[in-house]
Amino acid sequence: MREVPATEFARNFGRYREIVQREPVAVMSHGRPTGYFVSTVEYEELQRYKNLARQSFATKDLTHDEIEMIASGRMSTDHDHLNALLDEK
Question: InterPro entries in the record, alphabetically (predicted)?
C-alpha cells in the first residue's frame, strides 16, 4: 500500500486517482493515516463483506440437514490432526 502526505494527495489527486486502480493509498497527516483512498471495486467488495458480517442466525433455527452438513465438514488433508479432533467423541 502506498502512503502519501495529505498535502501531496490534495495537490496531485489526479495522479492518485490512477494509482488507486492498482493499489490502495493511505493518506497521511503528521505520520499517521487519516484515511484511505481505494478503488470503486475495492470499496464495493468491502461493503459486501460488511453486509455479510452483519448477517446472523440463531443455531436453534438450523434445520437437521444444515446441522448434519456442519457436523460432517472437514478441513483439507493438510490438517488431518485437526480433523482427528473432530472425530473424537
Answer: Antitoxin_Phd/YefM, YefM-like_sf
